[in-house]
Amino acid sequence: MRYILIFFIFITPALSYAQSSVDEQIHVNNTLKVLFEALSDLSLEQVKKNTTADFMVLEAGEIWNLDTIASKINQLKPLKPVRINAIKFLRTEIHNNTAWVAYENRADITINGQKTLKEWLESAFLVKQGAEWKVSMLHSTPLTPKKN
C-alpha cells in the first residue's frame, strides 16, 4: 500500500503537468489558426485581438506591422477573396510565457473565380498576456507549390 501511495505522490503531478503542457500547446496552435481565419475574413479587429501591439511579420524579405496588414486588408476587401487555410504544425515549444511554433501553411485562394494555391514554411513567436496567447511575430518563407 505504501508503494502505491508513493507512486501516486510522484506520478500524479507529472501527469498533471504533461496534460497542462498539451493543453497549452493546443491553445498556442489554436491562436495561430484563429489569426489566419481573421486574415481570411479580412477582419483587422480580429487580427488585432490575436496579436501584440508591436506585432511584426517578416514576409519574403519585407517587414510588415499592423499598419501594413490593415493596408493589405483594405486592398483585398473589394476583391472579396475566399481563402481556405490548412496549417500543418511541425513543432510547438513553450517556455514559461513564450512559445514558438514551426508550421507549414497552405492557402487555397479564389478571387473572381480564379483559384490560386499559396504555400509557406513559417514560424511564429507568441507571448502569453494574462490567460491569452498573442502572436508577436511571424516569419514567412514562400514555397513553390509541389507538383503531384
What is the CATH first-level class name?
Answer: Alpha Beta
Structural class: alpha+beta
Order of helices and strands: HHEEHEEEE
- SS field, number of helical segments: 3
**What's the β-strand tally?**
6
Total domain units: 1
General shape: globular
Strand arrangement within the widest β-sheet reads 2-1-6-5-4-3
Indicate the CATH topology: Nuclear Transport Factor 2, Chain: A
Runs in which pLDDT lies below 50 for 5 or more consecutive residues are: 15-19
Spatial gap, N to C terminus = 60 Å
| Helix coverage percent | 25-40%
Bin the strand percentage.
over 45%
What is the architecture at the second tier of CATH? Roll
Nearest-angstrom radius of gyration? 19 Å
| Major beta-sheet overview | 6 strands, mixed
Mean pLDDT: 90
